[in-house]
Design goal:
The protein is built from 8 helices and 9 strands. It is of the alpha+beta class.
Length: 295
């Protein structure tokens, strides 16, 4: 996923699980987890994955999700190319997702008797979960090679970073040690948004200011907020319309199909009725674009 997608995931997860107590953690594929010594094999305790800990914060650094625990430890989740985080109602049995590698059961911070099942799913396994013992351990061992955040870079600083290399501008932007969070599509959007047609051109100072502004506001602020608002709106609409949808399915099953098919459709409707997990998401307002640089 690109940075705006990771930011949208962070906001969605954060508003649901922050403050919740992890009451169960289970590893279903050991080699996707790097323990606190960096190993991908060997015994891994559920306590290492946060069991009996409260989720203190869900943050992001570049395209990496950071989940911090109440004891100071935590984990970094790298989604890679195909990774995702899934949230379900933990009080009901659900079919197991293919390629589900880790599962956490979390008490809802708003209602401790309500359980949330959080799963890490990654078919291609280019991502993974990386554990750390403290904020210092996370910074020195897992995030040490990252450059400044793409969503907060200023044009002057961006120019200084790019002048240190003789590479093409786009190649430099894709280097996470130069700028954290920029991917191929994100870089292309930033170039296109400011009218750059050649990724290997040399950008002068006034245009660097505009490029820095595009990275901060054009791709991070407006796009993720609008994306999250759209996703939340769709989710809330589906939840609001769920009862009507289920009634329609059952009516159609009873009126137009043989008993065997009717039973199958009714069963699907019953499973859908238990799939309402996430609360309505808050409306996110895009940041105000101030001091927009001009040509």
């Amino acid at each position: 996923p690109e940075l705006p997608e990771v930011e949208a995931i962070r906001r969605q997860i954060g508003c649901v699980v922050t403050g919740g107590l992890i009451c169960m953690a289970k590893v279903q594929r050991r080699d996707v987890v790097r323990d606190r010594l960096g190993r991908r094999e060997g015994r891994l305790s559920p306590d290492d994955l946060g069991r009996r800990r409260v989720i203190r914060d869900v943050d992001r650094r570049g395209k990496q999700l950071m989940i911090s625990f109440s004891d100071g430890g935590g984990m970094i989740i790298r989604l890679g190319m195909s990774g995702r985080i899934n949230l379900e109602d933990g009080s009901t049995r659900q079919s197991v997702f293919a390629h589900r590698h880790l599962v956490w059961m979390i008490e809802s911070p708003n209602s401790p008797e309500t359980k949330i099942r959080m799963s890490f799913i990654d078919p291609r396994r280019f991502g993974g979960v990386y554990l750390f013992t403290s904020a210092e351990d996370c910074q020195s061992r897992l995030l040490a090679g990252l450059g400044p955040e793409a969503t907060s870079i200023q044009g002057r600083r961006l120019g200084g970073l790019l002048r240190r290399t003789r590479r093409a501008v786009k190649a430099a932007l894709l280097d996470q040690a130069v700028l954290a969070g920029v991917g191929n599509i994100y870089a292309d959007e930033a170039f296109t948004g400011q009218g750059f047609t050649r990724p290997d051109l040399v950008i002068r100072s006034p245009r660097l200011k505009r490029l820095g502004w595009q990275l901060r506001f054009g791709s991070h602020s407006a796009v993720p907020s609008k994306l999250v608002e759209a996703l939340c709106g769709i989710t809330c609409f589906l939840m609001d319309q769920q009862a009507c949808l289920l009634d329609s399915i059952r009516s159609m099953a009873e009126a137009e199909h043989p008993a065997s098919i009717a039973g199958t459709l009714s069963g699907c409707a019953d499973r859908l009725s238990n799939h309402n997990v996430l609360p309505k998401m808050p409306t996110l307002t895009p940041m105000t674009r101030q001091d927009v640089p001009h040509n």
